[in-house]
Amino acid sequence: MTSAFDGSSIDGPLYRDIVDLAHHSPVWLDDTVTAWSAYGLGLFALLTAVAWWRARRKNAALAVTALAAPLIVVLAYAVNDGVKLLVREDRPCRGLPTATLEACPAPGDWSFPSNHAALAAAAAVALLFVSRRLGALALLAACAMAASRVWVGVHYPHDVLVGFAVGALVAAALAALVVRWGDTLVRRLTATRLAPLLTAA
Questions:
Q1: What is the rounded distance in angstroms from the CA atom of residue 137 to the CA atom of residue 115?
Q2: What's phi and psi for 5, nearest 5 deg?
Q3: 81-108 burial string, b = 16+ CB within 10 Å, else e?
Q4: Structural contact between residues 15 and 96, judged by C-beta atoms closer than 8 angstroms
Q5: φ, ψ for residue 26 (rounded to 5)?
Q6: Shortest CA distance to 43 belongs to which of 165, 104, 163, 127?
Q7: Which of 176, 190, 125, 121 is nearest to 149 (CA)?
Q8: Contact predicate 121/164, CB 8 Å
Q9: What are residue 46's DSSP bridge partners?
Q10: Overall pTM > 0.85
């Protein structure tokens, strides 16, 4: 078994500054960020559902793109998690002596890249291909999710930056393919039980 990678040499001081700032911030702010960090991914599922509901009233190809968004997010997660297993970076809360807002994950729950950041970014980018307005809102939420993971102490800044990039790039590539094959996918899905999901009629 290879030893774990220590990421503190990359931006450990910045991580400590952020965690220290969290400990000197108002309780309500820390509680809000902690809750968002733990449960905020649910917002992206809600935004995806809203995007699909609106898309089916416009055209079937757009509805297909919205329906593909959850699969795109899952594939982005798989890519990101594959990188995580290859790098095997220890959580900063394990290598640096500092108290954190969130309990430190168990050993072997690797830190780089951040899955939360990848999931949020992938969902946001996929939504941009369906609705610019919802996608822009999701992008802001994704940035907040990435920042929250550092604030609560479970990731280095570079973890969330790379996780965000992986999620965004994978989602952009896959969503572009879905759009390119949109008409073909509509024809195929129209002949299945999924046909009612493509239009509002």
A1: 20
A2: -85, 140
A3: eeebeebebbbbbebbeeebbbeeeeee
A4: yes
A5: -60, 145
A6: 127
A7: 121
A8: yes
A9: none
A10: yes
What phi-psi label fits residue 153: left (phi over 0), alpha (psi between -120 and 50 degrees) or beta? Answer: left
Q: Are 6 and 89 in contact (CB under 8 A)?
A: yes
* Strand, coil or helix: 5: strand
Per-residue pLDDT of the chain (201 residues; tens, 9 = 90+): 456 777 788 888 999 999 999 989 999 999 999 999 999 999 999 999 999 999 988 888 888 999 999 999 999 999 999 999 999 999 998 888 788 888 888 888 899 999 999 999 999 999 999 999 999 999 999 999 999 999 999 999 999 999 999 999 999 999 999 999 888 888 888 878 877 777 876
Question: Could you give the angle at the alpha carbon of 142 between the alpha carbons of 173 and 23, nearest 5°?
Answer: 145
The rounded distance, in Å, linking the Cα atoms of 28 and 36 is 12
